[in-house]
Write a structure and sequence with these properties.
Layout lengths: L2 H12 L14 H9 L8 H14 L1 E10 L4 E11 L2 E11 L6 E8 L2 E5 L11 E4 L6 H17 L1 H5 L6 E11 L2 E11 H7 L3 H12 L4 E9 L4 E10 L3 E10 L15 E2 L14
Parallel strand pairs: 6-12
Antiparallel strand pairs: 1-2, 1-11, 2-3, 3-4, 4-5, 5-6, 7-8, 8-9, 9-10, 10-11
Length: 286
C-alpha cells in the first residue's frame, strides 16, 4: 500500500487518538539503581486523583471539546458528550479532521459499551452502510486498525481510564494557578512512573501498557490536568510522537458537569465492518 493511501486510512484512526504520553529518556543503569534507592521528593498524586475520580463518578456526565494536532495528518476539532458509568465511558462526538492542503473531513463517532461506531468519508464500509463498527479484539480489518485508537480516545475523555488503579504510582511534577475559558483553575503536571504502575495496576491491559512503556525506555508518562475550583477536571492534555504521523497532541476541555446526555447508537442496517482492506486503502491499478 503506498504511503499516501496508508496515511489517508490511518487518519480516521488517528483522529480518535487521545491521552497519549510524553516521551522520556532512558536513564543509565547506574542512575536507575540510584533512583530506586532514593525516595521520590515529588508530592504523591494519589489523594488528589482519588478525589477527582470520585467527583467524576458523582456527576456522571459532561460536555467536552477535543482539539489538537495529528501531526502530518492535520488538525482535529470535535464537540460531544460523555456519560460515565462504572468503569466505562460512553461518548458521542461530532467534528472535523483536516490534513494540510486538503478540505476538512466530517467525522461522527459513538462508543457504547466499548464498541465504536465511526462515520467518515474515509471509512465507509458500503454505499448503504455509512457507519463502521469497531469491536475491541475483533478479527476484521477495521477492528484491528482502530481498536487501539478507541482505547486511547477513552483515556483522552476519561481521566479515570488513565489514572484509576495507578494513583499511587503518579507524582505531581508541579502545579500552578491558571485559567480555563476565563475561569480560575489549577494546572497539574503529572508523571506516571511506568515500572511502578505496571506493578500496582490490577487491569491486565493497563498493566501491559505501562510495562511496555517501561521496557521501551519511558520511565515516566506525562499528562496535564486542570482542575476547577470545585475539584472537577476543566481540561486534560497529553502528546506523543506517533509512527507515520509525527507529533500528536490532543486536549479535552470540559464543561457542564452533570448535564443530561444522550449517546446514540446508529441503526443496525446502517452499520458495517471491513473484513479486509477498504477500497480507499487498496493499491490502485497500474
Amino acid at each position: 500500500m503506498p504511503r499516501a493511501s496508508r496515511t489517508a486510512v490511518l487518519s480516521a484512526g488517528l483522529a480518535l487518538i487521545a491521552a497519549l504520553s510524553a516521551c522520556g529518556t532512558e536513564p543509565l543503569p547506574q542512575a536507575r539503581a540510584l533512583m530506586a534507592t532514593q525516595p521520590d521528593p515529588r508530592p504523591a498524586a494519589s489523594t488528589m486523583l482519588s478525589q477527582v475520580i470520585g467527583k467524576i463518578n458523582e456527576r456522571g456526565s459532561v460536555r467536552s471539546s477535543v482539539r489538537g494536532s495529528l501531526g502530518m495528518v492535520g488538525e482535529l476539532a470535535a464537540e460531544g458528550t460523555v456519560h460515565y458509568r462504572g468503569p466505562l465511558a460512553d461518548l458521542a462526538f461530532s467534528g472535523q479532521t483536516r490534513a494540510p492542503g486538503n478540505k476538512p473531513q466530517q467525522i461522527e463517532l459513538s462508543i457504547v459499551d466499548g464498541v465504536g461506531y465511526l462515520q467518515t468519508p474515509l471509512t465507509r464500509p458500503a454505499p448503504d452502510k455509512p457507519w463502521l463498527k469497531i469491536t475491541p479484539g475483533g478479527a476484521d480489518f477495521g477492528a484491528k486498525l482502530l481498536s487501539p485508537a478507541l482505547h486511547q480516545l477513552h483515556e483522552a475523555v476519561d481521566p479515570r481510564a488513565t489514572f484509576s488503579g495507578v494513583e499511587t504510582a503518579t507524582r505531581i511534577q508541579q502545579s500552578a494557578p491558571d485559567t480555563v475559558d476565563g475561569k480560575p483553575a489549577t494546572r497539574y503536571e503529572l508523571r506516571v512512573i511506568t515500572s511502578q504502575a505496571a506493578d500496582v495496576s490490577a487491569d491486565p491491559q493497563q498493566r501491559a501498557q505501562f510495562r511496555q512503556a517501561a521496557q521501551d525506555g519511558e520511565p515516566e508518562l506525562g499528562y496535564q490536568l486542570w482542575l476547577d475550583e470545585s475539584g472537577l477536571p476543566a481540561r486534560f492534555a497529553a502528546s506523543q510522537e506517533v509512527a507515520q504521523a509525527g507529533k500528536v497532541s490532543l486536549t479535552s476541555t470540559y464543561r457542564d458537569w452533570g448535564a443530561p446526555t444522550e449517546i446514540p447508537v446508529p441503526p443496525a442496517g446502517q452499520v458495517g465492518v471491513f473484513e479486509d482492506l477498504p477500497r480507499q486503502a487498496q493499491q490502485p491499478p497500474r
